[in-house]
Amino acid sequence: MANFEDPADALAGGRLTIDLAALRANYRMIADRAAPARAAAVVKADAYGLGAEQVAGALAQAGCRDFFVAVITEALELAPKLPTDARVYVLNGLPPGAEATCAAAGVVPVLNSLSQVSRWRAEARRRGVRLPAVIQVDSGMSRLGLAASDIDQMAPGLTDDVEVVLMMSHLACGDTPGAAANQEQLARFEALADLIGPQIPRSLANSAGVFIAPEFRQDLVRPGLALYGAAPIEGAASRVRPVVRLEARVIQLRTIEAGAGVGYGLTYVALARRRLATVSVGYADGWPRRLGGRAAAYLGDVRLPIVGRVSMDSMTLDVSALTEGMLNEGDFVELIGPRQSLEAVASAAETIAYEILTGLGRRFARTYLTQEARVEIDA
């Protein structure tokens, strides 16, 4: 039966539950595994769609003091909400003209190009102080970072203006532990970092890199996906606690006869009499359209296949396996949870867990679970 005791549940078409206690447990597990390296947290893209303020706050309670975002606007929003001894780093560096704002906010840019280095040095000279920065080198991914030739041009006088607090690079094949590219990148990264300064702390490992081998952990690891409950490599699932539960509300129940079509394009045609439930989650909520006919929802242990196409705001389930009266309008069914993992949904959609997480929409009623209390936010 529908349960409307929770005001948020009574209004929303779906509900997203984020277990901050599990998030903290994942952070502590990674920190213990990475030790003596320090463990940071990647909270870009609104903490992978789960709420940067709530997630970063929970991680700060667990002892995290290094937070990575993608762009300066994310850093400016998050930094004032963190402990005063925390640092926020901007992975994409700074667009031209953002240097003064970044310096004034005490945010640390990741410098990826000679032009970014030059502008940051100019800001330091203008202020008459050495400004902290991370230097990223390209160890083989060909995405962001300085090449060896750039380092030769940059090195003279760099430390007169810039306090290099970290050298970093990023693994292209970290989710494939046996890939030869991982060892090649490690060797290239260490050689490039030596050109700047052997004594400067180093960071190479993302979530996957934490689980490959100790030499990848360096001085600081930068987990993202593993914090949020998805296994970054095969075999790591047993160590990572699920963080997200997603449920959809039933908005209509009906019975159709053999030969009836369902949804746009009538791509599903019933071969016999079927009972259907339409639920209030669709691709506008981040539930991929391609899951129509490929994935399911669950009520308890009963699998309820998605039939027909996923629409913008709804989709249809075959609930014929349920005894009549087990499911009613207003009830919720599981989309991500104990019976259907985040990784399983991503696999069915032929994508990655990152894309599923970051795509979850803002219309869900969100509940943040902690060890002590629940904090509810209406979407």
Kindly describe this structure.
With 379 residues, the chain is an alpha/beta fold. Helix content is 29%, strand content 24%. The protein contains 13 helices and 20 strands. It has helices at residues 7-11, 20-34, 44-48, 52-61, 72-78, 99-105, 114-127, 148-154, 158-161, 180-196, 207-210, 342-348, 353-359; strands at 14-19, 38-39, 41-42, 66-69, 87-90, 108-111, 131-136, 162-168, 202-203, 220-221, 244-256, 261-262, 268-269, 274-279, 296-299, 302-307, 315-318, 332-336, 365-369, 374-377. Strands 1, 11, 14, 15, 16, 17, 18, 19 and 20 form a nine-stranded mixed beta sheet that branches. A seven-stranded parallel beta sheet has the order 3-4-5-6-7-8-9. Strands 2-10 form a two-stranded parallel ribbon. The longest helix has 17 residues, at 180-196.
Amount of beta strand: 15-25%
Low-confidence stretches: 372-379
Question: Would you tell me the overall average pLDDT?
Answer: 93
Helix tally equals: 13
Terminal CA distance: 23 Å
Largest sheet: 9 strands, mixed
- Tell me the radius of gyration: 24 Å
The residue fraction in helices comes out at 25-40%
Derived from helix and strand composition plus strand pairing, the structural class reads alpha/beta
Principal-axis shape equals elongated
